[in-house]
Every structure is written in structure tokens, then in C-alpha cells.
Amino acid sequence: MEDARVAPVLTARRAGMIACTECGKVHVPGLERCTRCGSHLSSRDVTSLQRVWAWLGAGLVVYVPANVYPMLRTTLLGKTTDSTIFGGVVDLMHHGSYGIAGIVFFASIMIPVAKFIAIAYLALSVTHRVKLSPGKRQHLYEVVEFVGRWSMIDVFVVAILASLVQLDFAAAINPGIAAISFALSVAFTMLSAQSFDPRLIWDASEEPEQ
Amino acid sequence: MSLADVVAEELPPEINPVLPPPAFTAEQAEHLIACPLCDTLHEEREIAEGETARCARCHEVLESPRRSAMTRIIMLALSALVLMVAAMFFPFLELSVAGRVQRSSLLDTILAFSSGMTAPLTIAMASLIVILPSIRFLSLVYVLAPMAFGHRPARHAEFFFRLADHLRPWAMAEVFIVGVAVALVKVAGLAHLSIGPAFWAFVALVLVTVLKDNFMCRVTVWKTLESRRS
Ligand SMILES: [Zn+2]
Ligand SMILES: [Zn+2]
User: Fold this and answer.
1) Residues B151-175: pLDDT tens digits?
2) Cβ contact (<8 Å) for A22 and B162?
3) Which among A14, A147, B150, B197 is least surrounded, fewest beta carbons within 10 Å?
4) ipTM exceeding cut-off 0.85 for this assembly
5) B41 alpha carbon to ligand 2 midpoint, in Å?
6) Best CA proximity match to B17, nearest among A166, A29, A88, A58
7) Does B9 reach chain A within 8 Å, measured CB to CB?
8) Which stretches does DSSP call E strand in chain B?
9) Domain covering A46-206 assigned CATH 1.20.120 in the classification
10) Taking the domains of chain B in order of start, what are their residue ranges?
11) Apex CA A161: angle with CA A156 and CA A163, to 5°?
12) How far is A208 from chain B (nearest CA, A)?
């Protein structure tokens, strides 16, 4: 469809049609569900932004205990030490595993924080003028959608360690309460990103130039 | 009426404006396809196998049919299911400290959270690593197998294909593999650790999943489903 390079483009909304976001089929208004795939139809998801902010808020709230409380509780020869997410990264660096420390730091600290900022920015860009072009913002949205699940790495690490190092050894590792709040925070931000209707990114750019 | 004729008018940028009267009839709309990400309309044309059609505005892939994609997806999904069963029951990791060996299967890993305050995480772990990926593989086989053999689509095939699509971000097998790598390094100082056969089954599972998702073109499957229904 390279020949369709007409500017400005015609969207389903401007043509008074409703497009299915699951299968791409174009419908005349008035239908509840897509006749091809059965998905719910709406020209624009009106509650999209509300749900984005609600999930994002929930994700932020549980992100705080995830960083304050211990993620791992290690018992070595009767002595118990707690380590938080950040403490775990520092420990790895002390052992000289800089690469792995980098992966954990990136997945557990950088990605969640960057995701919070990126989602808030995208949601604000729908109602406010921003510098980034719609094309770049959609790219940002795709990166956020792709990268979010990788934050789960640390939760998996805790589970693997806890199952491997059992009580009958001199050492025991147990999951801490932060594992739950961190997993929830990742899930909530994923839901927040999924609630965003990317078609909203382009609508503001269709506004006539003043 | 062509696309360019309708582009003339402007619309206010509210989230939910009143739609203008429809520019196309239902029959004309049959020959249109909208970009699922940015809503841009395109005139539909035959896309040859191996070709990729992209959105004119945002360059999102609209359609990319591949030769005998359905049979390949079914084969890959079936292999993924077999590998999943193997990964579940063979030893996954082995840890030895002072002559004693601790074997841990995928099941043990999942059950690691089953005591105390972190019990809810057990269900979440089981879902992310085993249950959701398995549901995806089963749904794809259920939807695609009858069509690959030239039959009508199975009952509720639409529902199961939507399910497989929606579950995609929540099936986290590949994230788990990276978690294993990090865990290996963390325990390295404490004890001697070796990798069991289930680990390699799981790595193969991840590769098969990635291959399968690359072959799959959502719009092509939907169009095939629709044409086989009527
Ligand atoms: Zn549809
Ligand atoms: Zn597009």
C-alpha cells in the first residue's frame, strides 16, 4: 500500500466510519461488535485515559513498598539478612558480576521508572501540546508495550533462588513481601499501557493549523 | 467515491466527537482496511505471500501473509506444548553443596512462593510461566487446525483467537529464562550449580514461541476465518 501516500490521510473517524482495532475491518456506525472478529467496537475509547491514570496510580502506589521492603531474605548459618531490590544490585556489583548487576538494575529500576514517566507523558500529550511528533510518540508507545514485561525478571529470580536453596542446607532463601508488591506494580503498569488507545495520539495532529 | 474525495473536511480534536455522516456504504467498506494503531483508512488489495503491507501514516504492519503459515504455526504450537510438558517434569536446575544434591523442577520453582505471605504469587507465577503460554498454544491449534485441513472453523474459534492475542503480553516464558540466568550467577558463590535437561527444553520452547509469533499475521488469520465461515 505504498501508493496510499496522500496527505493528509483519511481516518475512519473522519470518514464517519468505525474501525475494528483487532482485525482492521471497517464498519458503518451502529454496530456493537465487529462482524469479523467479535471485538467490541468504538470510534474512540472514551474511558481510555481514565483507566490509564487509574492503573498508573495503582502501579505507583505499590511501587513504593516494593523498594522499601525486602525482596530476598537470606539465612546463612543462622544469621538472617534482608535485601531490597537496590541492595541486590549492590551485592551483585560487590561480587564483580557487573553485567548481571546491569541487567537487574535496568529491568527492576530503570524500566519501571521510565515506564511511569513515558505513560504519563503519552496520556498528557493527548490533551496538551507537546514537542514530540505523533510518529515518535507512537514509537514510544510501542517501546513501552514491548519492554514492560521484562521488569518481571527480579520476581522470577527470587522464585528460582527460593526453590533452589532450601531449608535443609546451611543457607536458606525466602521471598520477601516486596516480591508481591513489585509483581503487582509491573502488572498494573502493563494494564495502564494496554488501556491507552494509540489512535488518540494522532487525533490532536489532525487539528487544523491556526 | 475515492479516498481523496472525502479528505476535505476538518474535524475537532475532542476524544469523542460526533461522527460525521458515514462516507462509505457497508459494501464499499468491504474494500477498506483501517490501521489498528492509528485509524488510517487504506484501500484493500491482494497482498502476495512474502509481501508486507504497512500503514501509510505510522508504518505499522497491516498484513504480511507467509507461505503455509498456518501449518507452520500449528506445528510450532504443538512442539511448544510437548516441550512445555518436558520442561515441567524433568529436573530444571541442580544445586550441590558439600556432596548433597538438590534438584529443582519447574514445578518446585513455581511452588517456592506457596508458603506464608507470598502465597498469591504462586498462582501468578504458574500463570505467567506455564498456564497462559499453554492456553495460547492450545487456542492457536484449536483455531488453525480445522482451517489448515480445509474444514470450516471450529465453534467459538473467534473467541479463542482473540484470547490468544490478548494473552500474548502475559505469557512470560522468555523473561523467565533471563531470570534463570541471573539466578545462576547469584548462587554461583554459594554452591555448585548445573543445568538440567528441562532447562534446555524451556530454551527451545522460547525459540519456538518467537518463531511462531513471527509467522503469525493477525489480519490474515481473521480474514481467512471470515471467508471460511461464510
Ligand atoms: Zn474485528
Ligand atoms: Zn497506522
Assistant:
1) 889 889 999 999 999 999 999 988 9
2) yes
3) B150
4) no
5) 8
6) A29
7) yes
8) 32-34, 41-43, 53-54, 61-63, 91-97, 100-105, 192-195
9) no
10) 3-63, 69-229
11) 95
12) 7
